[in-house]
Amino acid sequence: MPVPAAAPGSGTGPGSGRAGEAPPGHPAAGTAPPSRPELPPVHASVICVAAPGLVISPEHGQLTGRGVDGIYRSGRRLLSRCVLRVGGRDPVSVQGRGLAADRASFTATVRTGVEAGPDPDIGIERVRHADGTEHITLRSFAARPLRLPVEVALGTDLAELAAVAAGRAGPELPAAVHAGGLRWNAADTFTVTVADPPPDDCLASAGLLRWEIPLGPGESRTIELRTSRDRTVRAPAGRVANPLADARAEGDDPRADAWFRTSLDDLRALLLRDPDQPGDAFAAAGAPWRLGLAPAESLWAARMALPLGTGLAAATLRTLARTQREGCGPDAGKIPGPLRAAGAQLPPGCTGTEATLAFPTVLAEARLWGLAQDEVARLLPAAERCLDWLRGALGADGFLADPDPGPRRVETQAHAHRAALLGADLLERCGRPGAAEWREWAAALAQGFRARFWIDGPDGGRPAAALHPDGRPLPRLTGAAAHLLDTGLLGGGRLAAGLLDPVRTEQLARLLGSPGMDCGWGLRSMALREPGHNPFGHRSGAVRAHESAVAVAGLIQAGFEKEAAGLLRGLLDAAEAFDHRLPEMYAGRQRTADSAPLPHPAACRPAAVAAAAGIHALVALAGIRPDAPAGAVAVSPPAGAPLGALRLSDLRVAGEPFTVRISRLGVGMVEEAADGLQLGG
């Protein structure tokens, strides 16, 4: 859930403290939170992103200077107002839609009055790019030549997005004529220039550019607007080379390929350079509120994108290793991260804890997908420090709190258990000590979890959402329980053992596939009949794309194909309703024959984990289990083939193209793989 007035470039905002700490003035659980500015709704906005570039437009395409609309770069609004008038009239909006992650089209018409009747005689198409470029194409449908007056009114406040979102943007700045366009100067020599071809007239005091454009019958003319920072000012981050393979997912259901391609496009659009090491890229958390590094989300996105290559995972791990806390105190080895709101049931959780536990997991799995051994050796000390921190952070009861003191969350125990098992496998295969100790600890955690976290009942029981510090369970069924099924890959194509035994795993699968959790569009973040359920609550009922994809993959791995198929089809239907660009969350309202998924007004879209979720859920259908160091890969798709025949092409295993086909009977066949890679089923 984004924090109000989040600061792009950092993934944090007011209310975010140091990792593991409550922010100043944060209330204790159960008390009323302080008032905070609400995030402006953006669910109806058309958002283009090519990080660090971002454009937020209303559906009609006119940037009026109100709200958060504007052209941004590195969190600064370069242009807040861009209003087009043609023939002295405001265009009538016809359609606004995204063309790709980094560009959008806005279609409008104008009736000039030169022809009798109600029909418009001028068509307008505005194509706006995330880099600040806009092409305005005017096309005449009139039967006679026209000389068309065109005006574009421009303005900017050069405000930070955090200030704009909090309603604290300043007044518009005065403009000056510059090189046939307009320029705005700020105190820090920040400048913006606009316009090509040069206008016939510039009125700097009003921010107006004017043209007289001749148009014959059927002719068209294009005006290009370019909005950019002064090239002498160094941006803190820039576009990065693409580390993700051009994979496809083609099959009986054409929506699968559209979802896969859009997810890949969105994930690429969110890639940012590390300002300290420009050769390293990571996935920004999401647009518009968190267009910067968020350790947990960036690692989760990199992990789910491993089938597209290990480059993003390696760069993200290197970036976060440089932030790892040093020294010998209780936080030594921890990756810092801000607090994340957890809804009304629990106090905020620490994303640094989640990132620290994910680090050894991502490194271990990246090694199996083909991360070079020298890169593994380079990152292994940081993974060992993460495990050392885990050892020191455990409570007297053997469970992990985030932050401490605080509740022991169900998903945190799942992350810790997975980190221990995959970390043990990593240590053993890299010839490092400690593997046996971590396996013993994981076994003890599983035993304690089944005794303390599992709430027995006549219906088979359920996992608690958390344990209070005094040991009382919080008896809520939440989507976070899906992480109990996310076991992770071990060498030799094996799956790590989970926290639950087979009987409890079957019961959890039944619960996740029930109408109380599966709303028809994906997995609810809290069951329908739980106290405090809210279909729009980001932790109390809304569908979170990431958790739904984790549930789909975990259910497939555990052999519960019926439940996985129901959630997957719901996700795919929701993706189609959102033009295949899933937001990070949307309302968990029960699906009916005539309903559609409802957007959450404050959700990021695109978001890294939502984009990667589409890739993760579809690739899970192939059941790929690589072990690149051993020169082997196994394919074990579910027998039911929920989406029919499917071909996943140009994935990456051992650094080489990998293509697998799944038949309608659920039989997998590898069509392309690296030379010498031993194939198995």
What's the helix and strand layout?
Layout: E1 46-50, E2 53-57, E3 63-64, E4 70-73, E5 76-79, E6 81-86, E7 92-100, E8 103-110, E9 122-129, E10 133-140, E11 146-155, H1 161-165, E12 176-178, E13 181-185, E14 191-194, E15 201-203, E16 208-215, E17 220-226, E18 228-229, E19 248-251, H2 254-269, E20 271-274, E21 277-283, H3 295-304, H4 311-321, E22 339-340, E23 349-350, H5 351-369, H6 373-393, E24 408-409, H7 410-429, H8 435-452, E25 454-455, E26 462-463, E27 466-467, E28 473-474, E29 489-490, E30 494-495, H9 502-512, E31 543-544, H10 545-558, H11 561-577, E32 585-586, H12 608-619, E33 624-627, E34 632-635, E35 646-653, E36 656-662, E37 668-672, E38 678-680
Parallel strand pairs: 34-38
Antiparallel strand pairs: 1-2, 2-4, 3-6, 4-5, 6-11, 7-8, 8-9, 9-10, 10-17, 11-16, 12-13, 13-14, 14-18, 15-16, 19-35, 20-21, 22-23, 24-27, 25-26, 27-28, 29-30, 31-32, 33-34, 35-36, 36-37
